[in-house]
Amino acid sequence: GQQLNQSPQSMFIQEGEDVSMNCTSSSIFNTWLWYKQDPGEGPVLLIALYKAGELTSNGRLTAQFGITRKDSFLNISASIPSDVGIYFCAGQTGRDAGGTSYGKLTFGQGTILTVHP
Amino acid sequence: DGGITQSPKYLFRKEGQNVTLSCEQNLNHDAMYWYRQDPGQGLRLIYYSQIVNDFQKGDIAEGYSVSREKKESFPLTVTSAQKNPTAFYLCASSRWSHPTEAFFGQGTRLTVV
After folding, report:
1. Most exposed residue of A38, B4, B47, B85, measured as fewest CB within 10 angstroms of its CB?
2. Is the dihedral of CA B9, B49, A101, B85 positive or negative?
3. In this model, does residue B88 exceed pLDDT 80?
4. B42 and A105: CB-CB below 8 Å?
5. What does the pLDDT average to over B29-39?
6. Nearest-neighbour CA in chain B from A46: distance (Å)
7. Residue from the list B6, B41, B100 with its beta carbon closest to the beta carbon of A92
8. Å between A18 CA and nearest CA of chain B
9. Nearest CA in chain A to B30
């Protein structure tokens, strides 16, 4: 089945540093989503990307939809302690392969971010 | 407020017992999903449902069962056949369309004692 490779698996940074993580796939995706999960909670949607090449910001977060439609990255600028958590990417092909996968989302394995004060 | 609700937040089960986790949404979403998350790990898809009275196995369906009798509800039963059931379980919902966004519940932490 489809797989998303998310990297790095974990990051340990100092407060104030910028962070970059990415997702890649061997398949084309037509929607990319980025989520953040706080410990013991459900993931929360951060940014949604719908067009190849699209660059979208949400405060200190910036995400891009790769031009090949096989990758996406998320940047966090000037990290703060509350940025700690697990960040997930998710992709959707949006193509009707017999109607069985049209709306289905595939998730990456997550990047665990630790921010030292 | 529209949203997706999982209950209970914490659940303890004796080995050999079945247990059912609740997931309800009032977002009028067609699709609902169940994921399992182990400590420090990503999300693994257990089951998903595109529409009422229909559901498909995900990547790790063995030892689990679901039903989708109502659009708003997608309960997950962890059966005694699941060999390692202790985990954090997450329910999500989305439109079954393109593009779409999934929204998650707060999760249920299941511990087998």
Report:
1. A38
2. positive
3. yes
4. no
5. 91
6. 11
7. B100
8. 22
9. A103
A83: DSSP letter? G
* Partner B contacted by A111 (CB < 8 A): no
**Residue scoring higher pLDDT (A98 or B72):** B72
Question: H or E element: which one contains A5?
Answer: strand A5-7
* Cβ separation B99–A30 shorter than 8 A: yes
SS3 A81: helix
Yes or no, beta carbons of B106 and A94 under 8 Å apart: no
Chain position carrying tokens 């940025």: A83
Distance CA A63, CA A48 (A): 8
Give B102's pLDDT tier (boundaries 50, 70, 90).
confident
* Tens-place pLDDT, residues A54-100: 999 999 999 999 999 999 999 999 999 999 999 999 988 766 555 55
Residue with tokens 């779409």: B100
